[in-house]
Amino acid sequence: MTFFHHLPSVAQLHDLAQDSIDLTKEGVLTAKRINNMMIEALGLKLFYATEKVSEKDISILCQLAEETQAVKKMTDMQNGQIVNFIKGFSSENRPAMHTAVRDFFEQCNTSTEAKQATELGYKELEKLRSFLDEIEKKSQITTVIQIGIGGSDLGPEAIYLALEAFHKLDRKVYFLSNIDPDEGARIFQQVDLEKTLVVVVSKSGTTLETMTNERFAREKFKQAGLTTKHHFVAVTGKGSPMDSKEQYMDCFYIWDYIGGRYSVTSMVGAFVLAFALGMDRFLDFLKGANAMDKVALRSDPYVNLPLMSALLGIWNRNFLRFPTVAVIPYSQAMSRFPAHLQQLDMESNGKGIDKEGHFIEHDTGPIIWGESGTNSQHSFFQSIHQGTTVVPIEFIGFKESQYKEDVFYQQTTSQEKLLANLFAQSIALAIGQKSNNPNTFFPGNRPNRILLADKLDPFTMGAILAFYEHKVVFQGFIWNINSFDQEGVQLGKNLASKMLEQFSLQRQGKSIDTRGFSLGVAYLEHLSFGS
Ligand code: G6Q
After folding, report:
1. Which residues belong to the active site?
2. Alpha-carbon dihedral of residues 520, 523, 528, 531, nearest 10 degrees?
3. Element (H or E) spanning 448, and its range?
4. Residue 260 in contact with ligand 1 by CB distance below 6 A
């Protein structure tokens, strides 16, 4: 058995889970419980009275955090110690310093490694500021197309959309990630190339989808008689195949100690977000993330929001044994945020070995998915309330709207209707509904929590982003897994490249080499590509 099972708190938590609190019982979910089970930082309130958890359960979960030294490991990570490793086996073996590249506000980290990373990050940001100022003064650029995939796409797009209300006027960004040629064709039909910059974002500078889409984009500019070098910018790792001043107007750098899914606040997100929001608002966004980084260093889980959220998630996953989590923001602007969290969480914690390379026997990262409310209420909430799979929910809500434009209808505003639905869903899921008619019976006891803020602005968005980054990392620390690599994406990628070799042979009229990948070749006879 691996280390997790040997922890004294784990045995206690298994016992407690046998008889977990019944939220449907009269007098259990009270106003007092709602007020007591709320913690707060940076204007964010985390309400967890509707989780199927008691104060006693939480005190033992806090013990679990101590036994696993979760906060010490967070401190080590933020200090730039190596956290991305599997002991005794070849691995990336490096620090994860996404927090360092936004650490230039208050109480900066003073460790040598973190300070160096902060200085490098800040230098890139200053360079970006000058670059964007120049563009504003000297050119007519109004549109940016970001080409990148995975971590080089999901987070930046989610935040771009979430903060659209704060964008500068007449600035438009498109994201091209999928290798599906229809996606490139669709985007290029909509843009005026003379007014467009393409930022190619790839840390490795080798990702097939990104390289292919870059070629697609360059051909569009060439066909329009435009000089590609004047329209292409790179964001990449220093020394990568894309690190070329001949090919690009300029290159901005990221470092191998920033994982793709943790890279939104590095140059990966900075280029498009600073272009769309302006540098000052982008800095507000970084400030919010940086402030949450400091919250994550607090040793007491009752004032450390991401740690408390991580512990509640572990309670649901390992002790109540729920396999999935849905994230439901009651904000249309955040509609792509669940997709970002899906990668952040599932690529980080979808692991089956511990940091010593042992296969583990306890559950790790759940299946993450989600959609915005209230739309989701009209699609899959039937199953969330009465289905046979219990899906814990993480709600996100805001007191105020972003645009402050609203309508008064049936005595309330739309924003009030949005919030009323959020709280009503949370309570309904917890307490259910008794009924003699089985069709209108709601079992209740469906765990959920609410993250509530005043308004979705750049600072708050930064804080929410970092809240989730740290929740995921805390869970990885507690499970003793490496949350910073992603070996699981390699096998399929390697087989696809073998299959592409066969496509190429077929196109050239050469005989197919079935020794390379005979199973893939079985499908080839169903496809035939012209030359
Ligand atoms: C994220 C992963 C992965 C990565 C993409 C793009 O943590 O590492 O999603 O971001 O595969 O990689 P490049 O930036 O190297 O093109």
Report:
1. 347, 378, 493
2. 0
3. strand 448-453
4. yes
